[in-house]
Amino acid sequence: IKSLPHELLLEVVSRVASLSLYDLLNAKLICKDFLNAAKEDYVFQHVSMDKFPVVPWKLNEESYLFINRCLENGNAEALYREGMKEYFSYKKQEFGIEKLKKAAEKGHVDASYVYGMISLCLGNDGLKQEGLKVLSSFKSRGFRIKQCRERVKGFLGLLWVNNIVARKQGSWHAKACSNRENTKEFPIERKQRWQSSEEEDIIVSTCDLCLWDHEVDLFCNMLQ
Protein backbone atom coordinates (compact mmCIF):
# COMPACT_ATOMS: atom_id res chain seq x y z
CA ILE A 1 0.00 0.00 0.00
CA LYS A 2 2.80 2.41 0.85
CA SER A 3 4.21 1.97 -2.64
CA LEU A 4 1.02 3.35 -4.26
CA PRO A 5 1.02 6.97 -5.47
CA HIS A 6 -1.19 9.14 -3.28
CA GLU A 7 -3.58 9.92 -6.16
CA LEU A 8 -4.14 6.22 -6.82
CA LEU A 9 -4.68 5.45 -3.14
CA LEU A 10 -7.18 8.29 -2.93
CA GLU A 11 -9.03 6.96 -5.98
CA VAL A 12 -9.24 3.47 -4.46
CA VAL A 13 -10.67 4.81 -1.20
CA SER A 14 -13.16 7.06 -3.02
CA ARG A 15 -14.39 4.10 -5.12
CA VAL A 16 -14.94 2.10 -1.94
CA ALA A 17 -16.75 5.09 -0.39
CA SER A 18 -19.03 5.51 -3.41
CA LEU A 19 -20.28 1.93 -3.07
CA SER A 20 -20.73 1.62 0.68
CA LEU A 21 -20.26 3.82 3.72
CA TYR A 22 -19.77 0.72 5.86
CA ASP A 23 -16.97 -0.48 3.59
CA LEU A 24 -15.33 2.93 3.93
CA LEU A 25 -15.49 2.67 7.72
CA ASN A 26 -13.91 -0.78 7.55
CA ALA A 27 -11.21 0.45 5.17
CA LYS A 28 -10.27 3.17 7.68
CA LEU A 29 -9.48 0.42 10.19
CA ILE A 30 -7.04 -1.39 7.90
CA CYS A 31 -4.13 1.01 8.07
CA LYS A 32 -3.13 4.60 8.69
CA ASP A 33 -2.79 5.30 4.94
CA PHE A 34 -6.44 4.43 4.30
CA LEU A 35 -7.49 6.38 7.39
CA ASN A 36 -5.73 9.54 6.20
CA ALA A 37 -7.02 9.19 2.64
CA ALA A 38 -10.61 8.80 3.92
CA LYS A 39 -10.39 12.25 5.52
CA GLU A 40 -9.79 14.08 2.24
CA ASP A 41 -12.41 16.21 0.49
CA TYR A 42 -12.38 14.09 -2.66
CA VAL A 43 -13.71 11.09 -0.73
CA PHE A 44 -16.59 13.13 0.74
CA GLN A 45 -17.48 14.24 -2.76
CA HIS A 46 -18.13 10.62 -3.79
CA VAL A 47 -19.15 8.82 -0.59
CA SER A 48 -22.44 6.91 -0.63
CA MET A 49 -25.27 8.22 1.57
CA ASP A 50 -27.50 5.15 1.19
CA LYS A 51 -27.25 4.29 4.89
CA PHE A 52 -28.51 7.72 5.94
CA PRO A 53 -32.26 8.36 6.14
CA VAL A 54 -33.46 10.56 3.27
CA VAL A 55 -35.10 12.89 5.78
CA PRO A 56 -33.43 12.32 9.15
CA TRP A 57 -35.54 13.55 12.06
CA LYS A 58 -32.60 13.43 14.46
CA LEU A 59 -28.91 13.75 13.78
CA ASN A 60 -26.08 13.43 16.25
CA GLU A 61 -23.21 15.85 15.92
CA GLU A 62 -21.00 13.39 14.02
CA SER A 63 -23.70 12.68 11.42
CA TYR A 64 -24.47 16.40 11.07
CA LEU A 65 -20.81 17.21 10.43
CA PHE A 66 -20.55 14.33 7.93
CA ILE A 67 -23.53 15.54 5.88
CA ASN A 68 -22.27 19.13 5.92
CA ARG A 69 -18.86 17.95 4.75
CA CYS A 70 -20.54 16.11 1.87
CA LEU A 71 -22.48 19.25 0.91
CA GLU A 72 -19.41 21.46 1.08
CA ASN A 73 -17.56 19.13 -1.29
CA GLY A 74 -20.35 18.82 -3.84
CA ASN A 75 -21.60 15.31 -3.11
CA ALA A 76 -24.40 14.84 -5.68
CA GLU A 77 -26.73 12.83 -3.42
CA ALA A 78 -26.31 15.29 -0.54
CA LEU A 79 -27.03 18.22 -2.87
CA TYR A 80 -30.13 16.48 -4.21
CA ARG A 81 -31.53 15.69 -0.78
CA GLU A 82 -30.90 19.16 0.62
CA GLY A 83 -32.17 20.81 -2.58
CA MET A 84 -35.44 18.87 -2.41
CA LYS A 85 -36.00 19.84 1.21
CA GLU A 86 -35.15 23.50 0.63
CA TYR A 87 -37.27 23.85 -2.51
CA PHE A 88 -40.38 21.93 -1.54
CA SER A 89 -40.44 22.05 2.24
CA TYR A 90 -38.40 24.95 3.62
CA LYS A 91 -39.60 27.52 1.06
CA LYS A 92 -36.01 28.35 0.14
CA GLN A 93 -36.64 27.98 -3.58
CA GLU A 94 -33.58 29.89 -4.76
CA PHE A 95 -31.18 27.80 -2.68
CA GLY A 96 -33.06 24.59 -3.45
CA ILE A 97 -33.07 24.99 -7.22
CA GLU A 98 -29.36 25.86 -7.18
CA LYS A 99 -28.51 22.65 -5.32
CA LEU A 100 -30.73 20.58 -7.63
CA LYS A 101 -29.01 22.13 -10.62
CA LYS A 102 -25.55 21.32 -9.23
CA ALA A 103 -26.59 17.73 -8.52
CA ALA A 104 -28.01 17.42 -12.06
CA GLU A 105 -24.75 18.74 -13.53
CA LYS A 106 -22.95 15.97 -11.65
CA GLY A 107 -25.20 13.40 -13.33
CA HIS A 108 -27.65 12.68 -10.49
CA VAL A 109 -30.66 11.11 -12.22
CA ASP A 110 -33.48 12.16 -9.89
CA ALA A 111 -32.07 15.67 -9.53
CA SER A 112 -31.98 15.94 -13.33
CA TYR A 113 -35.65 14.95 -13.50
CA VAL A 114 -36.80 17.40 -10.80
CA TYR A 115 -34.68 20.28 -12.08
CA GLY A 116 -35.91 19.67 -15.62
CA MET A 117 -39.55 19.58 -14.53
CA ILE A 118 -39.25 22.78 -12.49
CA SER A 119 -37.50 24.51 -15.39
CA LEU A 120 -40.27 23.55 -17.80
CA CYS A 121 -42.99 24.62 -15.34
CA LEU A 122 -41.69 27.98 -14.24
CA GLY A 123 -38.91 29.20 -16.49
CA ASN A 124 -38.68 31.55 -19.42
CA ASP A 125 -37.79 30.20 -22.85
CA GLY A 126 -34.10 30.09 -21.99
CA LEU A 127 -34.67 28.12 -18.80
CA LYS A 128 -37.11 25.79 -20.57
CA GLN A 129 -34.44 25.08 -23.17
CA GLU A 130 -31.98 24.32 -20.37
CA GLY A 131 -34.53 21.99 -18.78
CA LEU A 132 -35.03 20.14 -22.05
CA LYS A 133 -31.28 19.76 -22.43
CA VAL A 134 -31.00 18.21 -18.97
CA LEU A 135 -33.92 15.87 -19.59
CA SER A 136 -32.57 14.76 -22.96
CA SER A 137 -29.87 12.84 -21.07
CA PHE A 138 -32.52 10.33 -19.97
CA LYS A 139 -32.79 8.88 -23.44
CA SER A 140 -29.08 8.84 -24.18
CA ARG A 141 -28.29 7.20 -20.80
CA GLY A 142 -31.12 4.68 -20.98
CA PHE A 143 -33.02 5.82 -17.87
CA ARG A 144 -36.68 4.94 -17.39
CA ILE A 145 -38.84 7.96 -16.66
CA LYS A 146 -41.53 6.12 -14.72
CA GLN A 147 -39.07 4.59 -12.26
CA CYS A 148 -37.44 7.97 -11.70
CA ARG A 149 -40.83 9.60 -11.13
CA GLU A 150 -41.74 6.95 -8.57
CA ARG A 151 -38.52 7.54 -6.63
CA VAL A 152 -39.16 11.28 -6.58
CA LYS A 153 -42.74 10.67 -5.47
CA GLY A 154 -41.47 8.51 -2.63
CA PHE A 155 -39.07 11.25 -1.53
CA LEU A 156 -41.80 13.90 -1.60
CA GLY A 157 -43.98 11.60 0.50
CA LEU A 158 -41.45 11.98 3.33
CA LEU A 159 -41.63 15.80 3.28
CA TRP A 160 -44.08 18.42 4.40
CA VAL A 161 -44.62 19.88 0.93
CA ASN A 162 -45.11 23.63 1.35
CA ASN A 163 -44.25 24.70 -2.19
CA ILE A 164 -46.43 23.20 -4.91
CA VAL A 165 -45.15 23.71 -8.43
CA ALA A 166 -47.89 24.51 -10.94
CA ARG A 167 -47.24 24.91 -14.63
CA LYS A 168 -47.91 28.21 -16.32
CA GLN A 169 -51.02 28.48 -18.44
CA GLY A 170 -50.79 27.27 -22.00
CA SER A 171 -48.79 24.53 -23.63
CA TRP A 172 -45.18 25.68 -23.95
CA HIS A 173 -44.43 23.06 -26.62
CA ALA A 174 -47.42 23.56 -28.90
CA LYS A 175 -45.92 26.38 -30.93
CA ALA A 176 -42.66 24.57 -31.59
CA CYS A 177 -44.44 21.30 -32.22
CA SER A 178 -46.74 22.76 -34.87
CA ASN A 179 -44.49 25.41 -36.40
CA ARG A 180 -41.40 24.13 -38.25
CA GLU A 181 -39.75 27.57 -38.04
CA ASN A 182 -39.32 27.09 -34.28
CA THR A 183 -37.63 23.72 -34.39
CA LYS A 184 -34.19 25.31 -34.03
CA GLU A 185 -35.21 26.56 -30.60
CA PHE A 186 -36.87 23.30 -29.55
CA PRO A 187 -35.45 20.44 -31.66
CA ILE A 188 -38.03 17.74 -32.41
CA GLU A 189 -37.40 14.05 -32.72
CA ARG A 190 -40.40 12.12 -34.01
CA LYS A 191 -41.02 8.65 -32.71
CA GLN A 192 -43.75 6.10 -32.12
CA ARG A 193 -43.26 4.99 -28.55
CA TRP A 194 -42.63 6.48 -25.13
CA GLN A 195 -43.06 5.55 -21.49
CA SER A 196 -44.14 8.67 -19.68
CA SER A 197 -47.68 7.83 -18.62
CA GLU A 198 -48.96 6.01 -15.58
CA GLU A 199 -49.19 2.91 -17.75
CA GLU A 200 -45.90 1.26 -18.63
CA ASP A 201 -46.25 1.78 -22.38
CA ILE A 202 -48.45 3.93 -24.59
CA ILE A 203 -48.03 3.93 -28.34
CA VAL A 204 -48.71 7.28 -29.96
CA SER A 205 -47.36 9.35 -32.80
CA THR A 206 -45.59 12.12 -30.93
CA CYS A 207 -42.31 13.96 -30.33
CA ASP A 208 -39.98 14.54 -27.43
CA LEU A 209 -41.66 17.85 -26.68
CA CYS A 210 -45.04 16.15 -26.33
CA LEU A 211 -43.46 13.54 -24.05
CA TRP A 212 -42.08 16.11 -21.63
CA ASP A 213 -45.24 18.23 -21.84
CA HIS A 214 -47.25 15.24 -20.65
CA GLU A 215 -44.64 14.42 -18.00
CA VAL A 216 -44.96 17.96 -16.61
CA ASP A 217 -48.67 17.32 -16.06
CA LEU A 218 -47.88 14.09 -14.18
CA PHE A 219 -45.25 15.85 -12.08
CA CYS A 220 -47.56 18.72 -11.11
CA ASN A 221 -50.41 16.33 -10.33
CA MET A 222 -48.05 14.32 -8.13
CA LEU A 223 -47.50 17.42 -5.98
CA GLN A 224 -51.17 18.16 -5.38
Describe this structure in words.
There is one protein chain. The protein has 224 residues and is mainly alpha-helical. It has a domain of 108 residues. 61% of the residues lie in helices and 5% in strands. The chain has a two-stranded antiparallel ribbon. A hairpin with a 7-residue loop joins strand 1 and strand 2. Helix 6 packs antiparallel against helix 7, helix 7 packs across helix 8 and helix 8 runs antiparallel to helix 9. The protein is elongated, with a radius of gyration of 20 Å. The termini are far apart.
Keywords:
224 residues, At1g67623-like, 13 helices, F-box_dom, F-box-like_dom_sf, mainly alpha, two-stranded antiparallel ribbon, 61% helix, 2 strands, F-box-like domain-containing protein
Q: In brief, what are we looking at here?
A:
By secondary structure, this protein is mainly alpha-helical. It is built from 13 helices and 2 strands, in the order ααααααααααααββα.
